[in-house]
Amino acid sequence: MASLYTLLSLCCLAAPVVLDPPPFKFQPEQVHISYPGVPYSIVITWTTFNKTESVVEYNVWGGKLFDLRAKGTSTIFVDGGSEKRKLYIHRVTLSALKPASAYVYHCGSEAGWSDILYFIALNESNAWSPRFALFGDMGNENPQSLSRLQKETQVRMYDAILHIGDFAYDMDQDNGRIGDEFMNQIQSIAAYVPYMTCPGNHESAYNFSNYRNRFSMPGDTDSLWYSWNIGPAHIVSFSTEVYFFLDYGVDLIFKQYEWLKKDLEEANKPENRKARPWIITMGHRPMYCSNDDKDDCTRFESYVRMGRNDTSPPAPGLEELFYLHGVDLELWAHEHTYERLWPVFGYKVFNGSIDEPYVNPKAPVHIITGSAGCKEKHDGFIPEPRDWSAFRSSDYGYTRMQVLNDTHLYLEQVSDDQYGKVIDSIWLVKEKHAAAVDCAVSSAGSSAQRKHECLHAHRRVMSLWRVCL
């Protein structure tokens, strides 16, 4: 008769091996929304790891839940890492929305649905006062500002979020899993308000493939550059990275430049500038900064500002283009600090007046807001600020902006280190918005010589004006 020990041993050997169940790969995650540039519309984007339908069920707040239904499409994104992980990116456009109305929605398919979420359809009028949160350089590790942004977004403090480059640190890491984690972290804000983006240097892996596939911005440029209108503002998003990652194509510098030129010329047509007087740009690497690192606005002339002479033909910079087309405000990140500049062009300060520098300034105002929090921590500053530097802080935090009306725009900096304290604020007042001495519009299509003469004529005017002050 077999011993009890022998019988138990045989039973153990015969027992089936129990493995962890496979992940539920049909479940939607990483939900976020964006404005597609088409009035009365919103795009809802999410991810699954198996192929499913792309469906959004929704209705106005207070209506019969999920009474409306919209279908979209999915695209396969294969991460460039060694595992070649496959993600299904779903996009559904909701159209014919009622402006400024609240909608409840969920997304997915009969194989799995997201949580119940909501958004406010954009007010399509140019006579309202949209509110924004602005920041760059937020990672999935040490995203210090995220919890405050979550709460403020969910109590409807903002109408849109502008993330000015550098996500997750980095979305391609661990075969794209860090990107998944980050997109799930920001769902708590990005599923409620349009989350509008531009690429930064930390998105460069595999030709910016994680950035280009995960986000859904207006236009047909893989979210690299685009523009959109909100309230009295025309917002232009572009890639500073075309100046640095030349292996992906030097031609991208010129393609983007020509696109920017046409977009700004269109925005400056009298009927368009009257309807959307504020022109605001957002790009990752700043033209100016007073940090102490080894970057291009600290150790050598900014490529974004001045262009590159080591390409054939030489690549044009953007400072003169933005100046001539009357850009009012330029938003940047990249430096892990906050810095507000005086109105500046060509290293010269052109304040509106001694007492009211931001009232009718004669050059664009620059804001650097890259301190949302990431694993790289803070950047430092040089001991003595430059003449064009008005305020600096190395606190973790983010910027709030409200475009109040045609003439007034408000900015303030929130310190997360100081429990949400507003540590800096300005009113930017422009009683007249226009391209510089109408050069940009009147010389559109004219010779390069005419534009060159126009620019130098305006520089002479600015020099005289500054001396008079």
From TrEMBL:
Keyword Iron assigned: no
One of the record's GO molecular function terms: acid phosphatase activity
Protein name: Purple acid phosphatase
Keywords: Glycoprotein, Hydrolase, Signal
EC class of the enzyme, as a word: hydrolase
Catalytic reactions on record: a phosphate monoester + H2O = an alcohol + phosphate
EC number: 3.1.3.2
UniProt record similarity statement: Belongs to the metallophosphoesterase superfamily. Purple acid phosphatase family.
Purple acid phosphatase N-terminal domain: residues covered: 28-119
Domain Calcineurin-like phosphoesterase: 131-338
CDD domains attached to this UniProt entry: MPP_PAPs
Species assigned in the record: Conger conger (Conger eel)
Domain Purple acid phosphatase C-terminal: 363-425
Signal peptide residues on this chain, from the entry's feature table: 1-19
